[in-house]
Write a structure and sequence with these properties.
Elements: E1 4-13, H1 19-32, H2 37-42, E2 46-56, E3 61-65, H3 72-79, E4 87-92, E5 95-96, H4 102-111, E6 113-116, H5 128-132, H6 134-139, H7 143-156, H8 172-185, E7 190-194, H9 202-219, E8 222-227, H10 230-236, E9 239-244, E10 247-252, H11 254-259, H12 264-269, H13 275-278, H14 306-313, E11 320-323, E12 329-333, H15 335-342, H16 345-356
Parallel strand pairs: 3-8, 3-9, 6-7, 7-8
Antiparallel strand pairs: 1-2, 1-4, 4-5, 9-10, 11-12
Helix pairs in contact: 7-8, 8-9, 14-16, 15-16
């Protein structure tokens, strides 16, 4: 497994015959703080990504979240070499991707990095098995081997038995599963997903999120996932980077961002998130085992979502006990803390009662 590192990455687009000099000047001005994005735009230069630095550990889902125009998709395209950074470095598996030749970068893309697009990008004249094996075909893998590996990837994605079907015979969710299988078939270490589920309706989108999380348990890929959907980011991300106007304004876990927003922008961005579905018992528990595990009342684990803790809290007459796998009580969740973390007290009490019902 390999680590992905971005170090002070910039991407600036310029216009005109003196484009290179203008772009270099813009980066220097941004580094020194002499100008901002709006001033550069007025001069005909666009700063799409500004001083982006982060580290994605092996086996981690790293979500980059932001509104349209925040720079998240541009950042992703620099990670796989489709765009060249104006400044900074991107390292994967100890290799500086920004120093590679075009041929070397194509080698890395075909063997180490896979991409899942927003739009399914399936070939209509190829059946499901051929679509899933396309990346292997590009690598020059013999037909029997690529069909075997493509079939295994399709089975992992819940499409066993659909190998000979055509793309137009599949639903949107199934087509996206083929795209995911194509990425998995190459056995690349790094999986890049650009708004991969945003074209799907809400129910299918949640199914695909479940599928990705389930696959991740067994495969442990390093994943960079781009989304504009905050709830999706909170559900999938081991670590989350929030982008605004080309800059990463906050990085952290879902709990970090929900409970300690870096600025007013992040605070306004997260105000409509359903905290009860994102935060878990370990975010609100105290070290005091205030519950009564011997009384036969239900308990929760540290990873239980607060919505489920609410359901238990509404049924017991004391603090909810938090237990480890062996049944040992490791803490408790007082209802007052539960209410405070979820939000408005009156709404939280109603939510607890609704969940219990």
């Amino acid at each position: 497994m390999s680590t992905l590192i971005a170090e002070h990455v910039y991407k600036v687009f310029g216009k005109g015959p003196d484009n290179g000099a203008a772009v270099a000047k813009a980066v220097r001005a941004l580094e020194s703080g002499e100008t901002d994005r709006d001033e550069l735009r007025a001069e005909g230069t666009t700063a799409a990504v500004i001083d982006a630095s982060f580290r994605v550990e092996p086996g981690q889902i790293f979500v980059v979240m932001g509104l349209s125009g925040s720079g998240k998709s541009t950042l992703l395209r620099m990670l796989n070499g489709l765009l060249e950074p104006t400044a900074g470095r991107i390292l994967f598996d100890g290799e500086d991707l920004t120093a590679l030749s075009p041929a070397e970068m194509r080698r890395v893309r075909s063997t180490k990095i896979s991409m899942v697009f927003q739009h399914f990008a399936l070939f209509p004249h190829r059946d499901v098995l051929e679509n899933a094996g396309y990346g292997l075909e590009v690598q020059g893998v013999p037909r029997a081997e690529r069909e075997r590996r493509a079939a295994e990837a399709l089975a992992l994605c819940g499409l066993g038995g659909w190998e000979k079907s055509w793309p137009d015979e599949l639903s949107g969710g199934m087509q996206q599963r083929v795209g995911l299988a194509r990425a998995l078939a190459t056995d690349a270490d790094l999986l890049l997903m650009d708004e991969s589920f945003s074209a799907l309706d809400p129910l299918i989108r949640r199914d695909m999120q479940d599928q990705l999380l389930e696959l991740q348990k067994s495969l442990g890929k390093t994943i960079v996932f781009i989304t504009h959907d905050l709830n999706e980011a909170m559900r999938l991300g081991d670590s989350i980077a929030v982008m605004r106007d080309g800059r990463i304004v906050q990085q952290g876990t879902a709990e970090d961002i929900l409970t300690r927003p870096a600025d007013d922008y992040v605070a306004s961005f997260i105000q409509d998130v359903d905290r009860s579905r994102v935060l878990t018992a370990d975010a609100v528990m105290t070290g005091d085992p205030g519950g009564r595990p011997d009384c036969g009342c239900p308990t929760v684990s540290a990873g239980t979502p607060l919505a489920d803790v609410c359901a238990v809290s509404a049924r017991v007459q004391h603090d909810v006990a938090v237990t480890a796998e062996d049944g040992t009580v490791v803490g408790s969740v007082p209802q007052g803390r539960l209410v405070a973390f979820i939000g408005d007290e009156r709404r939280a009490v109603l939510d607890c009662a609704e969940v219990a019902a």
